Write the structure tokens for this entry.
Amino acid sequence: MSALQTGSTTAADGTPPDLARRFDDTIARDQRIEPRDWMPEGYRRTLIRQVAQHAHSEIIGMQPEGEWITRAPSLRRKAILFAKVQDEAGHGLYLYSAAETLGADRADLTERLIEGRQKYSSIFNYPTVSFADVGVIGWFVDGAAICNQVPLCRSSYGPYARAMVRICKEESFHQRQGYELLMTMMRGTDAQREMVQDAVNRWWWPSLMMFGPPDDSSPNSAQSMAWKIKRHSNDELRRRFVDMTVPQAEKLGVTLPDPELRWNEELGRHDFGTPDWDELMRVIKGDGPCNAERIERRRTAHEEGAWVREAAAAHAAKQADRKKNGAVA
Amino acid sequence: MTATAPATAALALGDDALVLSHRLGEWAGHAPVLEEEVALANIALDLLGQARVLLSMAGDEDELAYLREERAFRNLQLVEQPNGDFAHTIARQLYFSTYQQLLYTELAAGDGPFAPLAAKAVKEVAYHRDHAEQWTLRLGDGTELSQERMQQACDALWRFTGEMFQPVEGLDADWADMETRWLESMTDVLGRATLTVPEGPRSGAWSAGAGRQGLHTEPFGRMLAEMQHLHRSHPGASW
């Protein structure tokens, strides 16, 4: 076992060593940490950050596709979009619940999101400018999410892993639907085929960036992997995504916008070009194409909904009072 | 075009569901709490499902949804009203889902062409009505501000409620009795929500029943422009 794996979890802060040892053992035996178990403060903080950002991504991720609900070109596609956006809100709810088992508070996490103190996936800062984007988001973005999330079904924190099992089932359904939309469009008119290729060109690199910075500049990764919160490195997951996607692109009849992309016989995987990491850093820091709009929309919904939440709380309090008084009388 | 009676009725009911579903879709990403993102999308999806069955009874669902102009739509003016604030959306839901529950219960009990659809839809509609009722109670009997907004919403939409009970050709229902029961239900729910039952006319813009004749309010054209734009831009394309 590496120094990293033992050194940072055992107690230097006065925690009884048997608790720390039990935690380390649980991780080592690939068993689950549950909400009432002792856990190192760093583990708790890292998980709250990751789960909250995951929840925020689901919620912000409703926007780029939600844009097209009112313009979906057939009733069938409209129904699919409604169901997908509804699923995303549901995923956000599961994940906020998982974060709450770690002692976080949903209202506080929402504040952090709209104040820009917590992040969400960089991908949702790109605009959806044609209906083909809806299909490409299903294919690439949900595809990348699946690569990321399937291993998280074995994450060491129980509530997170269980949320992932439910979420992954729905995500793979969305991914197939997105791909099927693109298939239908590719069999359609020239204009539809152009829309698909254009969308692929715009979303390819941002999708590769969803896996995060390269391993040599991903400071939290090693600890997260030691704690088995994460199971694979960013670069490893990115490679898997490329290997999975290339044959799908061929079948669809689109090209991926990377002149360096080719099969490497020796390594048994694809070589591909380097994403523009400066762009990723700009987007993460808030300077992507839609960062301001996405947060503003979330903030507006939250602020304009305040009176509704206050009414619900006031009504619940009145009901509780009536019940109490009724019980006394 | 002279449509047969079931087609006329299918369009009336189908357009109601289609248009209200669309309005609810405008809430995506804007709801006051996450639970309402889920609930409003859920209701919208139920309504869209109903619309697809009903429009398919009258013709091709996409042609009917995307290629008719404003004057050919047969929905109630109530369902095309803009979302407004959350109270307006809830008042619209309360008025409409109560009506839909009464109508579908009758249709489900009969042996007409709409009985199978109504039998399934009536379960969904019961949920929609319960959702609207619960929110009417929370907003009406919540804070001073929420009560004021809920009352304003009920008042503003009241004038569109009369047209729901104009008989629709091809639908076998006791319209007068439904209206009585609808009014009783409103008196009950609004009363429990500490709200006043509005007193104004219920004749709608133009006149009661105008929506069913294809006479709509101004916001509807803009709604259709958005809904139909992409479909119309690519004639003959499949999606």
About this structure: The two ends of chain B are 28 Å apart (CA to CA). Residues 25 and 44 of chain B are 7 Å apart (CA to CA).
